[in-house]
Amino acid sequence: MKFNTKTIHGGQHNDPSTGAVMPPVFQTSTFAQTSPGKPVGDYGYSRSANPTRSALEEALASIENGAKGLAFSSGLAATDCLMRSFKAGDEIITMDDLYGGSYRMFTQIYKDSGIKFHYVDMNNLDNVNAVINENTKMIWVETPTNPLMKLADIAAIAKITTANNIMLAVDNTFATPYLQNPIDLGADVVMHSATKYLAGHSDVVAGALIAKTAELGKQLHFQQFATGATLGPMDSFLVLRGIKTLHLRMQRHCENGEKVASFLNNHPKVKTVYYPGLVTHPFHEIAKKQMNGFGGMVSFDFVSGIKQDSITFLEKLKLFTLAESLGGVESLANHPALMTHASIPEDKRKEVGITDHLVRLSVGVEDIEDLLEDLKLALA
Predict the structure, then answer these.
(1) What's the pTM value of the predicted model, to 2 decimals?
(2) Is 348 an active-site residue?
(3) Under a CB-based contact definition with an 8 Å cutoff, are residues 115 and 90 in contact?
(4) Which residue, 213, 175, 169, 212, is CA-closest to 191?
(5) Rounded to whole angstroms, what are the CA distances from 80 to 56, 71, 86, 209?
(6) What is each CA distance from 319 to 93, 259, 305, 361, 367, in whole angstroms?
(7) Using one digit for the tens of pLDDT, what is the confidence trace for 226-245?
(8) Is 269 a catalytic residue?
């Protein structure tokens, strides 16, 4: 199947008992058994598996070209499940520009675990090779990054991980499988905050892991089952419903994102626009190579360098809603230093380029003329 067909039909089946086109919401915690250890069907307890969640997980595996999909209660729960694959003494290499929640987990939750993290600029692969040793077990890639839209060359990094027998994990939240397919490029596992583009309507919190192999999928499923951060049936239904329009929404997100980036790039009050679709973006060539479009996430900072200018701009917006999160049909605006990345120490933020006057936009699917007018008035 081509991708647009996969979002609707990939891994999906009509309900065998009723013929329902959409899977029912199996709002149950447990399932009857005919004899001890012999359930009526394939399900025993919903923490282990639930038919609605299974339908979502099969769809996730299909759109990411993986062997096994798993649905979690949040993107961070999915990340935490993967992290349980490692033990004291193991080392993990990750990006220097990273989602604030991932950074908080790595530096605070796992700080006493004995796992060592290396934060490197992956634009130069020499930085990656320099810290690889016999204890290195995984490279964690976020591309494009949140919020500076840095990119990493997945295929090039996959060559390194393959040569060194290291796992490669990719956070594909910003790009989605509509734009980027990490497993096809050599990744072993893909993570999503499914709250964002996959669900797409700002009405659910969810996460996902997709494993390249059935063996890895089985291991991750056990870790999920044993720790319990599974996605409920109603939330699973909502994410699955969102996936069915992913291709339609992403097309508009990309179209609007390019026009917003172009508008900001020519505005006298804007210093730098961070958008991989711009030819001036330092990772533009990588984006063209591994992505099928440039997405709907745009960040920018101000010529003045004044924090209050970004705050005033955000307070003046009318259509862009000032809020956490991203990837919904509605346009959202965010101040990373004060909101999503506030958990990262100020010196670390400045080190990677997250200034106090940086603004991140999640460009929605509204009429582009209305969005541009909103930006114009807020920048006036």
Answers:
(1) 0.96
(2) no
(3) yes
(4) 169
(5) 20, 13, 11, 11
(6) 39, 16, 25, 12, 11
(7) 999 999 999 999 999 999 99
(8) no
